[in-house]
């Protein structure tokens, strides 16, 4: 059980009640949870999934690979082609699913993961190569994560943007957003829109 809050007295009372009713003990500050490592310092709390990244590298056989600088090629042109060679669907879905979970602490792979996840129903060799490129990018950025700290910024701020008809198959646009609370990044997403926009204004 993970208990969090800013009232230490209430947390102590809750712990006391739980210890009275159940056989349990306090393990102290949260350090590792569902593949996410919490590193605490005077600067704040840093979340990363380094071990999770290393596990993916081992499972894909890329632990000794040469890293790449970007998670996806510019103008990648990924689409479904009738004549393209198919990839192993189960293997592809397993890898992309893990990359989706990894994006909980990795804003930098959100767009790339959103792109390869569009082909889960019929993955082809090019799609699998693109997913493996994300893994190769992770090899050089395994230490990356997200920082939460106290700062002077107050309030909630959101930013959003979208391209126009970038998908080569259905001409739908990709929308992206991220939100800051008290100066800390808390939500982000990159997702294909549900309808085809007629103009860039409509996007």
What report would you give on this structure?
- By secondary structure, the protein is of the alpha+beta class.
- It has 5 helices and 7 strands.
- The strands form 2 sheets. A 4-stranded antiparallel sheet has the order 1-2-3-4.
- A hairpin with a 2-residue loop joins strand 6 and strand 7 (about 185-190).
- About 15% of the residues are buried.
The proportion of residues forming helix, as a percent range, comes to: 25-40%
Form type:
globular
Radius of gyration: 21 Å
List the helices and strands in order: HEEEHHHHEEEE
Total helices: the number is 5
- The quaternary organization reads as single chain
Distance between the termini: 43 Å
- Report the structural category: alpha+beta
Sheet with the most strands, sense and barrel status: 4 strands, antiparallel
Strand order within the widest sheet?
Answer: 1-2-3-4
Would you count the extended β strands for me? 7
Query: In percent terms, what proportion of residues is strand?
Result: 15-25%
Low-confidence runs (pLDDT<50, min 5 residues)? Answer: none
Average of per-residue pLDDT values: 88
Outline the secondary-structure elements.
Elements: H1 8-21, E1 32-33, E2 36-41, E3 44-48, H2 50-60, H3 89-102, H4 110-116, H5 125-139, E4 145-148, E5 156-162, E6 174-181, E7 184-192
Antiparallel strand pairs: 1-2, 2-3, 3-4, 5-6, 6-7
Helix pairs in contact: 2-5, 3-5
Give a summary of the structure in a few sentences.
The chain is of the alpha+beta class.
